[in-house]
Each structure stands twice: as structure tokens, then as C-alpha cells.
Amino acid sequence: MSDLRYETPKTAEAAAALLASASGPARVLAGGTDMLVQMRSGRVKPELLVDVKHISEMTNVAQENGGWRVGAAVSCMALVENKAFSSAWPGVIDGANLVGSVQVRGRATLGGNLCNASPAADSVPAMIAAGAIASVVGPNGRREVPVEQINAGPGKTSLAKGEIVASFFLPPRPAKSGDAYLRFTPRSEMDIAVVGVGINLTLDAQGMCTAARVSLGAVAERALLVPEAATALIGSKVDEAALAKLAAAASAAARPIDDKRGTKEFRIKVAGVLARRAAAAALARAQGNN
Ligand SMILES: Cc1cc2nc3c(=O)[nH]c(=O)nc-3n(C[C@H](O)[C@H](O)[C@H](O)COP(=O)(O)OP(=O)(O)OC[C@H]3O[C@@H](n4cnc5c(N)ncnc54)[C@H](O)[C@@H]3O)c2cc1C
């Protein structure tokens, strides 16, 4: 059995340097709600764990340039309890608030939810719909990467050796904007999404949709940004005709697997149904009705 080294760096750069210089398997430890389960089952056997919960950049939530900067190691519960953030991005909170139980959310982070790279991760479609940009720190410096480009497939990210997600920037957005995330699960909680949909939209003074982003989770190898679904909403009043086009575009973009929790056909159908419902919820929020 090999020794396990545990480090608690105080900066993202120091964390990246530790990971980059590791000679054996090395992993980031955030909340540990995926990592410790994987270590106990023997699926991963790191020789170095780099705990990022002691890095202030990664544990802060603050307004920045009209938008929000959220540390990748902020717990879902801390985010849910942040009233100003929750009122700015209720759809992101929908996602964060569905991760596990209260106990799990007390540890689980957005960075861990993204970098664990489960196609069914609940916060990821909401973050993609929000247009969140990940600030990635690595041995060669810092780069800004749209969240939809971080995951490559189940359990795989596009991060290079030594790179970590330090924080997320959620951009400023106009008044009359709203977002929502909905998932379908056989049980009401402590279950994995069979389908998840995040939608973020903006209306003009006449109630016309001027901007939208739509993301689907659990229907492909990673969460998808679906521009064709957004196009169905833009230029409409998010009326029945637009919702029908949105549902068709969401179903067309879904390329799910069959498994014991849902067939391909079921997931494709549910992607359309949930997209409609998420659009209606985002619309109500944009209109100030929720
Ligand atoms: C009982 C239970 C129920 C759950 N229910 C749900 C659910 O309903 N929905 C859901 O989406 N998830 C669920 N999960 C999964 C898990 O809680 C989430 O994925 C969580 O957000 C992971 O965050 P973490 O901070 O605990 O990550 P960790 O376990 O610390 O890390 C996960 C992975 O990401 C890497 N990593 C972490 N942070 C970073 C970073 N900043 N940069 C680079 N790599 C990083 C780690 O090295 C590791 O590979 C559940 C887990 C449990 C145990």
C-alpha cells in the first residue's frame, strides 16, 4: 500500500504547482463527496490529495464588475444561503440545491460537481445556461474557459495536468432576466438526474425574448449547450409556438444512453417536456413573478 500525502495550500497557484510536480496519481480534494466515495471503493488511488478548501480565492462569493465571482470550493449550502446571489441567479441555486442531501450540500462544491465530470451533475446545466466562465489555474498560468468546455466525457475533463478550476464568473445581465433548472428523477431527492435542463433568458420592455441559453444534462456524455433550443426562444414572447419549437430542439439534441433509470426514447421525450417547463419557470422569474 502506498502512502497518501495530504497538502493544504493557501493559493490556487500553489495547489496547481503541487499537482503539476506530483510523480504519482494526484487529485484535488474539495468537499470530498465524490472523491472519498471513489477512494473507499478503490476506483481512485491517489498518492497526493490537494485540499483546496483553505484557499480564500476558492471559498469566496462576491460581486465583481456587475456580475458574480464564485469560488470553485464554495459549498452548495453556502451558496444557497447567500441571499444576494440566490436572488441574482435562482436557476443556479435550483441546481446547487438539488445536489444530494443537506449534509452532502454542506460539503459538496460547484467545482467538484463540474470536475467529477458526471453527465448528470445538477449544477452544471444551470451554470452553462448562466454563461459561467471557469477561471482555470495551472502550471502555465491562468486561462478563462466557458463551463461547457470543461467536461470531455464521463469522468473526463479537458483540464491539463496540474490545472484546477479556481472560480467561476457569472456575467452581469440586464433587468428582466430569469433562469431555472429542473431535473427529472424517479425519487424526489438523493437521486441522479435522468434528464436535467437549465435555461436562462432575457426579455425586452415588450416581453420579447432577446437572449437565451439552454443546457441539457444527463442526455449525452457531458452536459450540452444547445444553441438551436435557444434560437427557438429568441425573438418570441416565449409563447406556445416558441415552447413547441424549444421542446423539439431539446429532444433533437438529446443523445442519451439506455439504462435502468430510463430508456433512450423516454429521456428524449422528457428533455422536451422539461425544457418547456424550465422555460416557463425562467420566464416567470424574468417577469418578476417568482
Ligand atoms: C449521497 C450522495 C448524493 C449525491 N447526490 C447528488 C445529486 O443529487 N446531484 C449531483 O449532481 N451530485 C450528487 N452527488 C455527487 C457529489 O455530491 C457532487 O458531485 C458534488 O458537487 C461534488 O463536489 P465535491 O466538492 O464534494 O467534490 P470532490 O469529491 O472533492 O471532487 C470531485 C472530483 O472533482 C475534482 N475536483 C474538485 N474540485 C476541483 C477543482 N476546483 N478543480 C479541479 N478538480 C476538482 C476532484 O479531484 C475529484 O476528481 C451526491 C453524492 C453523494 C455522496
Blueprint of the fold:
Elements: E1 5-7, H1 12-21, E2 26-29, H2 35-40, E3 48-51, H3 56-59, E4 61-64, E5 67-71, H4 76-80, H5 83-88, H6 90-96, H7 102-107, H8 110-115, H9 123-130, E6 133-138, E7 141-146, E8 151-153, E9 156-157, E10 164-170, E11 177-184, E12 195-203, E13 209-217, E14 224-225, H10 227-233, H11 240-253, H12 264-286
Parallel strand pairs: 1-3, 2-3
Antiparallel strand pairs: 4-5, 5-10, 6-7, 6-10, 8-9, 11-12, 12-13, 13-14
The protein binds flavin-adenine dinucleotide.
Mean pLDDT: 96
Count all strands and give the number: 14
Content of β-strand: 15-25%
Oligomer: single chain
| Bound ligands, each once | flavin-adenine dinucleotide
Query: Could you say which structural class the secondary elements and strand pairing correspond to?
Result: alpha+beta
Q: What overall geometry do the principal axes of the alpha carbons give?
A: globular
Low-confidence stretches: none
Radius of gyration: 19 Å
Main sheet attributes: strand count, strand direction, barrel closure: 5 strands, antiparallel
